[in-house]
Amino acid sequence: MGSSMSNPTRDPSQIRSISARWIATAESSEVLENHILCIENGRIRAILPKTQFGGEPDLHLPTHILIPGLVNAHTHTPMSLLRGYADDLPLNEWLFEHIFPTEGKFVFEAPVDEAKEFVRRGSELACYEMLKTGTTIFNDMYFHGDATASVARQAGMKAVLTQAGLLYFGDDAAFSALVKQNVDFCSALAPDSHVRPSLLPHSVYMVPEEKLQEAKAAYDEACSGTHVVIHTHLHETKKEIEDLFAKTGKSAMDALDSLGLLNSRTVAAHCVHMTDDEIKLMAERKANVAHCPRSNLKLGSGIARIAAMLEAGVNVCLGTDGASSNNTLDMLTEMQYASMIAKGSTGDPTVLPAHEVLEMATIRGARALGLDKETGSLRVGKAADLVAVDLGSIEASPIFDPLGQLIYTNCRQVSHVWIDGRSVVYEGKVLTLSVDLTATGDESELETGLKLPLTPNAAISAQQSPAKAFRFLWKVDVGRIWALDCAGQSKLLTELLGLEAAHPPVARREIICDFHLFNLSHAKMLCLTQRQGAVFHAIMAVILDMMAGWNTDRDSQGATAAECFKEFQRLLLNHSVNDPPKRLMIFGGAQARRLTDYTSGTLFKHFLLYQFCARCERDVETLRFSVEVERPILPPALANARQKPSRRPQQTPENADDGTGASTEEKTAGGAGEDLSEEIQKVVEEKLRMTEARLE
């Protein structure tokens, strides 16, 4: 990595002149070398060669390229809390069976203050990530926009959004109220605010024409004279196009055009499946396309005809989509994908060269949002929205074309970001936001309602959270833990899990440590993801808590093995069959069966040992015995067993849980849910008989 050598007498807020090895203005394909950019009152005052600058600049960046702040033209910032939540699924299944139900639980059905907290946390996480990767402006589509707007202002970022995306579920009064909320929100925004207004119909297939007309009329009346961006999803999949045509006899684009919603203020996200005539119409209406290549690929939606759009004169910009469908909000990576996919899909390596894809991520995005006169390129008089990217790593050397290295390598590092001349990222550190990653939601609590029972010891970190402690545990090479002697294993896990305070008796602690180590080992043997491992850990800790009666007096007998196993079955099923918000698809059917078999066998030995300690009349403080149980045979290299298990959901049950973990429909109707429930029930009955015999 290269280094930035700043004047030690200057703090980040006092930087007014920046010397960079290269400056890419996005005004042309030319890259300036060894120039200095000067800032005054938040704007670019001058860009001139070093030889014409008198004195020393405030900041030297000898291995960096300065570029305009990146513009994320389509995203859903709060959905960063759902990053990786439902991977490897087609759009309709991902959206209607996973995302909408989960958002229903945490956003639509939750109390307003809880919903806003969900949005705030997700927005903080997203803004932090975007700043770290060079984004200064984002065009957002979500709900409770006032919470996101507050975070954007705190971060110093510029945002285009409104109070809530428009969705219609058959309730006319509710839709009209939603439109009014949005109009009131947009009307209240100051003209020079960092937050600009938008009209957010999710899509034509989610908002019918008559409701689009209602929303447009309300905006036209209340926001005349204001540049209101029309932000919507358009032609993302073949299925949505076919379904809408079968229902209405027209395409979404025809509907938007007939209503006057296809114009220079329109930002249409995705546009994957476009005919020649539709591309021509987009160009004629001067509508903008927000290209989201990574999301389109990940959801299997297809490859947008970007080369044809550019040739027709369509203003194409770039967006990441949400982190739940892309998994990253890194616009540098989005640029790389956009360029390479365009070349590969056309067979023409000259399509979308580096300088043009940089324009898509900067000035063209600003143009789509009506901000191109203010920002989007490095021109004297424009806002000093700047990003410094370090190209000084060995992997980027030698540098024949700095723009090529910026776009095509993976070794670039955003080191500094300024917005309106204000330093918001300095030497890789975000200055305007301090995001506690653990405050964005304990993974297992978010998805299951089960809290990870980890109480981190001060030896780890006074600020360490249960979720972070588990993430640390998950990253540890389990083979190295097994290589320790019993005392070493106990010491490591006791400190990490904070067991000393919760379980003073040494013998009990040793059993609990062994218990958690077996959990970890088996989870990795099954190649569970970290999220699945966290949920499994939470479930098993609840069962152990139930068995041992940790929070009762020493005379408590705890639960029986049969009761514990029944509860385990219920919890496992609730996280193996997709029926949100009551149930969530965390484990696949095969994983659930293997976890059931494992738990019903090996772990019951831990339960018996713990009960012996808890019920023994002798002082357990002096009871010293080794825990001798069958230890799983670990694969020689867990790193070579990372193939991801299938996440294809099972059939969705309709009714609520009856206490056994399976609904009536699951027991009587066909489908994967029934098969899983019946098969696990058979295992349960067999193992319970064996366990009860051992207990006797």
Automatic annotation (TrEMBL):
Domain Amidohydrolase-related intervals: 65-424
Keywords linked to the UniProt accession: Hydrolase, Metal-binding, Zinc
4Fe-4S among keywords: no
Record-level Gene Ontology MF annotations: deaminase activity; hydrolase activity, acting on carbon-nitrogen (but not peptide) bonds, in cyclic amidines; metal ion binding
Region (Disordered): 636-679
Gene3D superfamilies: Metal-dependent hydrolases (3.20.20.140), Urease, subunit C, domain 1 (2.30.40.10)
Name the UniProt record assigns to this protein: 5-methylthioadenosine/S-adenosylhomocysteine deaminase (MTA/SAH deaminase)
